[in-house]
TrEMBL record:
<dbReference type="Pfam" id="PF12833">
    <property type="entry name" value="HTH_18"/>
</dbReference>
<keyword id="KW-0804">Transcription</keyword>
<keyword id="KW-0805">Transcription regulation</keyword>
<dbReference type="InterPro" id="IPR050204">
    <property type="entry name" value="AraC_XylS_family_regulators"/>
</dbReference>
<dbReference type="InterPro" id="IPR009057">
    <property type="entry name" value="Homeodomain-like_sf"/>
</dbReference>
<keyword id="KW-0238">DNA-binding</keyword>
<dbReference type="InterPro" id="IPR018060">
    <property type="entry name" value="HTH_AraC"/>
</dbReference>
<protein>
    <submittedName>
        <fullName>AraC family transcriptional regulator</fullName>
    </submittedName>
</protein>
<feature type="domain" description="HTH araC/xylS-type">
    <location>
        <begin position="161"/>
        <end position="258"/>
    </location>
</feature>
Length: 263
């Protein structure tokens, strides 16, 4: 039997990542049971409502938008809606802005007008089957809209640009901060500070997101999950799946990729 017919499918759509965040977008066809995850979740319905239930809530609540803080248990039912779900690294600049705005909340339902404004460009690009680069740009804009438009990162430092190129070429290998710093002729402490100021996150968090982004992108382009995991520095497909469940609350195989001619 084909593997895709045996695995549970939560949605049909696209996954696009960037270091520090990712967009999971499409039609949700099943429930995600009670879980918690490391990332901040921002779910914005483009068509229809979905249902979400937080710990201690007696019943699920129907909404078009929600923000779920890190490590808060919740249950999600897409109810057939078309949804853009954005996962954000809590310690990134966008994550810090979200944590500031929604301090004191476990889950916060968003008003319909705010959802509509935040997701409009994501929806337009998605419905036009736009390339990943355009959809990613719109997704990052949606996060900024919900977060309250945090300050932009400083002008790119060529040493950090070089470090990121060095890192991306070595995702499959063990990486130490000292080695990256030496490659761009910086002390470890100076590199740590400069990297965080430029990327908005730590090297460790950046690597986690970059590796998951690379693995999911490779698998969605036709590589086996085992090959994709190895190419991104995971021990095997099970390691990738465990990490993905910890960060996002679901396995990457639970989303069936769309065929998009414009990619």
């Amino acid at each position: 039997m084909d593997e895709s017919r045996k695995r549970p499918v939560t949605g049909i759509g696209r996954v696009i990542g960037w270091p520090g965040g990712s967009l999971w977008i499409g039609r949700h066809v099943a429930q995600v049971q009670d879980h918690a995850h490391h990332a901040i979740q921002v779910s914005l319905a483009m068509a229809g409502d979905f249902r979400i239930q937080g710990a201690g809530w007696p019943e699920p609540r129907a909404t078009r938008g929600v923000v779920v803080m890190p490590d808060r248990r919740h249950r999600f039912d897409g109810a057939g809606a078309t949804i853009a779900t954005l996962f954000v690294e809590p310690n990134s600049k966008r994550g810090a802005a979200l944590r500031t705005r929604f301090a004191g909340f476990d889950l916060c339902l968003l008003p319909d007008d705010e959802v509509r404004d935040a997701v409009q460009f994501v929806q337009a690009h998605y419905e036009a089957a736009a390339p990943d680069a355009l959809l990613l740009q719109a997704a990052q804009g949606a996060v900024c809209s919900v977060a309250g438009n945090p300050p932009a990162a400083p002008v790119d430092d060529p040493r950090i640009t070089s470090a990121i190129e060095w890192l991306q070429a070595r995702l499959a290998t063990p990486i130490r901060l000292d080695d990256v710093a030496a490659a761009v002729h910086l002390s470890p402490s100076r590199f740590r500070h400069l990297f965080a100021s430029q990327t908005g996150t730590s090297l460790r968090a950046w690597l986690l997101w970059a590796r998951m982004e690379h693995a999911v992108e490779s698998a969605f382009q036709g590589r086996s999950w085992t090959d994709a995991a190895h190419e991104a520095g995971f021990a095997d497909a099970a390691h990738l799946t465990r990490t993905c469940r910890r960060v996002f609350g679901l396995a990457p195989t639970m989303l069936v990729p769309e065929q998009v001619s414009g990619k």
